[in-house]
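Risk register update: the risk of archive-format incompatibility is retired. Evidence:
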Amino acid sequence: MVIGVGKAIMNNLPFMHIALAEPPAIACISGGILNPKKLVSHASPLEKAHNSLHLCADTRNSGTKVLVVDEQEGSL
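Archived output:
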C-alpha cells in the first residue's frame, strides 16, 4: 500500500513515472535493469509498524521506501 509519495525523481530515478507505468517497471525488474531492493531504505517488522510511519513522516530522515514486513510470512 502506498501511503505517500515523495518527489517525482528520487535517487536519480523517475519514481512517479515508474509508479504509474507498472508494465515497463515490471519489465525493468525482471530484466535486471532495476533492483527494487536498492530502493528500500528501511524495513521493520509488523509489530513496529508505528515506527515506520513516524520515520516516513519525519522529513529529516531518508525514508525513500519504508517496508513493513510480516516476519511470519517471510522477509525482504
